[in-house]
Predict the structure.
Amino acid sequence: MPDGDAAPQQLFDRFHRWLRERHLPITRQRDMVARAVFAGGEHLSVVGIQRRLREQGLRVGTATVYRSLDVLLESGLVRANDFGEGFKRFEALLSPGQHGHLICSRCGRVTEFSTERFERLLPMVADEQGFQHQTHRVEIRGLCRVCREADAGAVQHAGTIF
Amino acid sequence: MPDGDAAPQQLFDRFHRWLRERHLPITRQRDMVARAVFAGGEHLSVVGIQRRLREQGLRVGTATVYRSLDVLLESGLVRANDFGEGFKRFEALLSPGQHGHLICSRCGRVTEFSTERFERLLPMVADEQGFQHQTHRVEIRGLCRVCREADAGAVQHAGTIF
DNA sequence: TTAGGTGCAAACGGTTTGCAATCGA
DNA sequence: TCGATTGCAAACCGTTTGCACCTAA
């Protein structure tokens, strides 16, 4: 959550460098999509990106948003997430040291947590299986505090008895 | 991998019990879909399930496969996975103690690994954020041995230099 | 008997693609 | 200039839904 506002700029610079390195044109559209995703607010969908841009009076075609995101994903500066809503959400990868997601299975709320404690273990696990670790994803589904409390008085849900 | 063949039967029994408990009818179609998924072979897609059934001379409508999978998911005996192919793959959850997935970012091959070492930590992490842990998903993306070796002689991929 | 399930085909909705016009380097 | 990108609209394709018919209990 605490993104001063230096981080987005740094990501933006890295993105430009990445594009220049492979002689890909830096376009107005790519910049706009990158800025929208880097600006935080976290977990934007394609529609959300377009909405955010529109609010600033900017317009980018849907296909272009997707194509820009492809580039951003390839650069490793952005990560795609599927929280089971039927579409993807994108987030800036500020640091190589990543974070995991806690997803409420009732209301869908998403919270982040540090995966510091796993960071050493995961490449090791990969290695044991002959894989060379690149990235990982750690996701926990459960009930958030609000939904748990809301459940307190409710009928017991024919509970999971295994 | 080592599914003698007792496990599928056990899952099947649990599924029946689960249906009976909530007075849901046990139908030919639900049985067929359940068997296909429980039979191992791992990570079947909806089309794959239908193919497998057709090979046995069985036919189930697509909508019914989806609806049966909904029930299986809800029972907690089956898990859905998105390996980034644009559709979902389903797998039996033999034991509550789960496994993670190693996905080759080049060829897409999926391997499993035990998440035993994480099992204690994850509920703890959830708790720290006010969540009540239900399930989790641990996923590692990287290069499998084959793709790594195939890469050895190839052009260096304008590498990630961050 | 009847609540619930099934199959078909049509609808959905997120994502991709073909193509002519346009732009960055 | 020239190869790459953009925008539009159509195509895609996995998944969901409406509805008439059927079936487990």
In short: Residues 155-162 of chain B have pLDDT under 50 and may be disordered. DSSP finds seven helices and six strands in chain B. The two ends of chain B are 38 Å apart (CA to CA).
